[in-house]
Design goal:
CATH architecture of the largest domain: Alpha/alpha barrel
Structural class: alpha+beta
Helix content: 40-55%
Number of strands: 19
CATH class of the largest domain: Mainly Alpha
Oligomer: single chain
Strand content: 5-15%
Number of domains: 4
Length: 675
């Protein structure tokens, strides 16, 4: 019989709906039940595409004996970290503080007052490599709860008090300037892997936000070193196994420092951020590789992640059936030499082996290889390779596909909207702009209520019950602002303003600090607050970037000042930990540059207007905002009173609404924006 998760919208929770464990979703009712029964709470946090979450579920949560013990001694609560990032953040902070590391599945034992007292991540079904079995952990916790409850309560109280004392204030530190940005660049240079690209060692994650900072820093200062790090990192990733050489799109991370073997799950946020970065790299350099990867990644998102409602699904699993009924990681993506010969024949298979780096020994497991485009493979026959690629892609489509997490997360759709809108504009792909617009329409129609407050998720056209967090407001506003700049539709600027007003009203604290949850959100053991950029921009830096752009669009000093105050944390963290606040640094570069405000006044259908508009969009000026349309329109404040010079479409380049001399010439506009 299905448990209480059967009525949830989260695919991850629904995967556990038929477990023999009597799961509860996160709710006050679950803790009331623990209080009534006098038992502790097992909190298990994971997400749909998490490999080890599936492993633990199969080993323990599908086991009848384990389930019976859980049901007798605990109230079990299952949380999708992507639906409830606030719950995940609070308890992950406790796990990391207690154990020095974290990860998923996250396993935390709580009192009925939601106070944590014992922590872990994955526990095996039998003792292994110094780890106790899950059953041993359950029995130990149950005994401690029964025999030493006062001690357990004291431990839990101490943990909560310690967490509550962790507050992050910037206290008027001010936004970072030239010195802090130079120190951040130096810090990235020290951590840069000059042999393989990227930063640090294994596992190696795609540093999309740090690369965006490097591109903006180069655009503002001319630093060739910054551009080289960005370009070499992007090329290394695009040639590596982390990039899907057949279908486009990036995996979550590489298990090695050479980008060869990925963890095969594909996340919407990674691909949205990387699509935009490669498009910006092309804008800066004209690189054919950057153009190809940007477009292939955009096409991957539309083909593989777009939902019938017009939004974008969260992820594709790493695991799939290998054709024998066994579910293994990477089965959909890897190839043996024999599999290549079966599809291509001997001659083309030998060619594909060389160009894709497929070997008899394999680069992955069981003699299989992850496809790459290694350097030095010989002279490229583009036509032949494209033909081979299409045949392999068609053959791969016959394999059992990885599962897809169909829930729509507002924040990640905001990132996708920005990426698709800009990529479509740069490469004359109106279909991509249309897909971005449809996703934005869905967010307005389904995720925003009458007061413009956001819901975090939806699935199959049904909105979830969880309130949007700060990253939802910041990233969706970012997407709307990008869409406004590309389409010339001022409604998107207005919607962004609604969201950012809520940020100022409900997420901002003293001295400009920002919190991940609204002040009237469900209270947890502490109000989460994390400014560091991890897999995606933090809510803090996402909001700062959108506030700055909206202030540039509208002249709103309130929004600009809020952005400047929020960037105080970047001044504190950027020089010390630049890898972990890349979007904050990119926003700080835009602030130092202005950002520039570009108004293109003229009839939308006019060829000269389009030429000026395209030139403005292709400008590398960091964080520049663009408004294009009829000067008589009230949709964009930047366009008000912008007269047409000699009756011709005219462009104005401004900072703080103070403008240079207008121009009607696209070449002259490009020159203005390159200084």
């Amino acid at each position: 019989m299905p448990n209480r998760l059967a009525h949830e919208t989260s695919p991850y929770l629904l995967q556990h709906a038929d477990n023999p464990v009597d799961w509860w979703p996160w709710s006050g009712a679950a803790f009331d039940e623990a209080r009534r029964r006098g038992v502790p709470v097992l909190l298990s946090v994971g997400y749909s595409s998490c490999h080890w979450c599936h492993v633990m579920a199969h080993e323990s949560f599908e086991d009848d004996d384990t389930a019976r013990y859980l049901n007798e001694h605990f109230v079990s609560v299952k949380v999708d970290r992507e639906e409830r990032p606030d719950v995940d953040a609070v308890y992950m902070e406790a796990v990391q503080a207690a154990t020095g590391h974290g990860g998923w599945p996250m396993t935390v034992f709580l009192t009925p007052d939601a106070e944590p007292f014992y922590f872990g991540t994955y526990f095996p079904p039998a003792p292994r490599q110094g780890m106790p079995s899950f059953r041993q952990v359950l029995e130990g916790v149950a005994v401690a709860w029964r025999d030493r409850r006062d001690e357990v309560g004291q431990v839990a109280g101490n943990i909560v008090r310690e967490l509550a004392g962790r507050t992050l204030g910037t206290g008027g530190a001010g936004a970072p300037g030239e010195a802090e940005l130079a120190q951040a660049l130096l810090g990235l240079t020290r951590e840069y892997d000059d042999r393989h690209g990227g930063f640090g060692g294994a596992p190696k994650f795609p540093p999309s936000m740090a690369v965006e900072f490097l591109l903006r820093h180069h655009a503002r200062t001319g630093s060739e070193g910054a551009l080289q790090m960005a370009a070499d990192t992007c090329e290394a990733m695009a040639r590596g196994g982390i990039y899907d050489q057949l279908g486009g799109g990036f995996a979550r991370y590489s298990v090695d420092r050479e980008w060869v073997v990925p963890h095969f799950e594909k996340m919407l946020y990674d691909n949205a951020l990387l699509c935009r970065v490669y498009a910006h790299l092309w804008r800066a350099t004209g690189s054919d590789l950057a153009r190809r990867v940007a477009l292939e990644t955009a096409d991957f998102m539309v083909r593989e992640l777009r939902t019938p409602e017009g939004g974008f699904a969260s992820a594709l699993d790493a695991d799939s059936d290998d054709g024998t009924g066994k579910v293994v990681e990477g089965a959909f993506y890897v190839w043996t030499p024999q599999q290549l010969r079966d599809v291509l024949g001997d001659d083309d298979a030998a060619y594909a082996e060389r160009f894709y780096g497929v070997t008899e020994d394999g680069t992955f497991e069981r003699g299989a290889s992850v496809l790459q485009l290694p350097q030095g493979a010989g002279v490229l026959d583009a036509e032949r390779l494209d033909r081979i690629r299409q045949r392999l892609l068609a053959a791969r489509e016959e394999r059992p596909r990885p599962g897809r997490d169909d829930k729509i997360v507002a924040a990640w759709n905001g990132l996708a909207i920005a990426a698709l809108a800009e990529t479509g504009a740069y490469f004359d792909r109106p279909d991509l702009i249309e897909r971005a617009t449809e996703a934005a329409d869905l967010l307005v129609r389904l995720h925003m209520d009458d007061s413009a407050r956001l819901a975090r998720t939806s699935k199959d056209g049904r909105v979830g019950a969880n309130a949007g967090v700060l990253e939802d407001y910041g990233d969706v506003a970012e997407g709307f602002l990008a869409l406004a700049g590309v389409t010339g539709e001022g409604a998107w600027l207005e919607f962004a303003g609604f969201l950012l007003d809520i940020v100022l009203d409900r997420f901002q604290g003293e001295d400009g600090v920002l919190y991940d949850t609204a002040h009237d959100a469900e209270p947890l053991i502490r109000r989460p607050q994390d400014p560091t950029d991890n897999a995606a921009p933090s809510g803090w830096t996402a909001a700062a970037g959108a506030l700055l752009a909206y202030g540039a669009h509208t002249g709103s000093e309130a929004h600009r000042s809020a952005a400047e105050r929020a960037l105080g944390v970047v001044k504190a963290l950027g020089p010390r930990a630049p890898r972990f606040i890349g979007w904050g640094l990119a926003t700080a570069v835009a602030l130092v540059d202005g950002p520039r405000e570009i108004a293109v006044a003229g009839p939308r259908g006019d060829a000269a207007t389009r030429a000026l508009h395209r030139t403005a969009l292709l400008a590398t000026a960091p964080g520049a905002v663009v408004a294009a349309g009829d000067p008589d329109s009230d949709e964009f404040p930047l366009l008000r009173d912008r007269i047409l010079v000699d009756g011709r479409p005219t462009a104005y380049v401004c900072r703080h609404f103070v403008c240079d001399a207008p121009t009607t010439d696209a070449t002259a506009l490009s020159a203005k924006l390159s200084n």
